[in-house]
Amino acid sequence: MSTAPSHDLPLGHLTHCQICASANLEMIMDFGHQAPCDSLLKPGQLLEMEKTYPLRLLRCPACGLAQIDHVVAPEELFYPDYPYRSGITETLVKNLQAIASRHIAGLKLPRGGLVVDLGSNDGSILQGFQREGMKVLGVEPTNIAQIAIAHGIPTVQAFFDPQVARDIVQQHGRAVMVTAANMFAHVAKLGQLIRGVEELLTDDGYFLSESHYLLDLLETVQYDSIYHEHLKYYSLQTVSRLLGSYNFTVVDAERIPNYGGSIRVVARKGRGHAVSERLTQLLQAEQAARLDTPAPFHTFRERVLRAKRDLQSLVLQLVSRGERVVGVGCPGRSSTLVNYSNLDPDLMPYIAEQSTSLKLGLFLPGKHIPIVDEKILFEQQPENVLMLSWHYCEPIVRNLRKQGLRSKIIVPLPEVRFHES
Ligand SMILES: [Zn+2]
User: In this structure, what CATH number is given to the domain that contains residue 183?
Assistant: First the structure.
């Protein structure tokens, strides 16, 4: 059993750093009270009370971790009807499935070994491993597990913890690799998760995680990726420090484009393993960006405030002269952007989403903007659309133009601008 600190957070307001437990936290941004971003509302819920929670970004001067200071119950965030599916974002699926071919060879994983994906969603990652001849198993708490199962990816519907790990080992044996893409920053009982991974892995097995990357968040002003599901905003330095306090060595890390800029970190069970050259280089890049100092956070704050003001005044101007502005794309992050920028339904009457989205017919929390099938865009040709999936801007714009959209396209971040196309 590991002697590492628990890293299991209580619910509600946090008074201490999530990694090092320092009580001295510096406030960077206060977004006020916000509803959980994926708690989209059904029409019948619009007149009910809506739960909101404080949303603030802080940094810890002692260990450098950027974090929020309020934990919403995971059952409330990742409820059974959770509407997010990774499988509908084409570029994301390609990137996720490339993990398999690259890492089976790179890490010399034994063919036929077991790969377990945590927060496996619709099984996109595991499909890649399955095609490469690995045994696969997903662990996913929401009903999206059923979609994975229907697509032939065996999936346990549960929140992962050491008990689930022991059950898996008993039924399937140990895993040569555990993956956790875009969920490692979401977990409140993180100590339990890491100890579970330790139990699940073979003695020198690998743990691969992908998280939204702090350097990208700051450089490209992705304040909209700050919401309650994201408890931590990792740098390589902070994630290494965290995993290093358990029985793991972080051996490799790279920047990847997923979600507007993520970091893929490979840790190996056991201590003292050799590390890659690019891991060392990335640590140096973080030092050069002074990520362990307040300066880049203060610059970020200034840029957020400017982007918010510019977006508000542009939308007001357009609407005042009789033009329409509607939203395009409804990723989780659009909730932070729309609510923080105070875009009411009278300014932005709907958000258009692709026809395969589970969000159609629902309403954005807070502002209650309806989410509708994107077909309406091509019929109505509004004068302006606001690109809410701006972190995947280019392929989406190309696709919309190909389908005949003539509207001007507003890109809200890092600086507000009209797309040139
Ligand atoms: Zn800390």
Answer: 3.40.50.150
Q: Which two tokens stand for residue 271?
A: 């201590």
Task: Give residue 270 CA to ligand 1 midpoint distance, Å.
Answer: 24
291 CA → ligand 1 middle, Å? 13
Q: Are 284 and 300 found together in one domain?
A: no
- Pair 95, 215 in one domain: yes
Query: Do 286 and 306 fall within a single domain?
Result: no
- Do 154 and 138 meet the contact criterion of CB atoms below 8 Å apart? yes
Is the same domain home to 144 and 278? yes
* Distance between Cα 16 and ligand 1 center (Å): 8
Q: Is the pTM of this model over 0.85?
A: yes
CA–centroid distance, 66 to ligand 1, in Å, is 8
Average pLDDT over residues 345-352: 98
Could you tell me the distance, in angstroms and rounded to a whole number, from the CA of residue 217 to the centre of ligand 1?
19
Q: d(Cα 362, Cα 281) in Å, to the nearest integer?
A: 45
Determine the distance separating the centroid of ligand 1 and the alpha carbon of 63, expressed in angstroms.
4
Among 268, 293, 318, which residue terminates a domain? 293
Query: DSSP of 336-394, one letter per residue?
Result: HHHHHTT--TTTS--EEE-TT-TTTT-B-TTT--BEEETHHHHHH--SEEEETTGGGHH
Tell me what the mean pLDDT of segment 234-261 comes to: 94
pLDDT band per the 50, 70, 90 thresholds, residue 1:
very low
Q: Which of 263, 293, 323 is the last residue of a domain?
A: 293
205: left (phi over 0), alpha (psi -120 to 50) or beta: beta
Range of the domain at 286: 86-293
Tell me, yes or no, whether 241 and 184 share the same domain: yes
pLDDT tens digit sequence for 271-299: 999 999 999 999 999 999 999 999 999 99
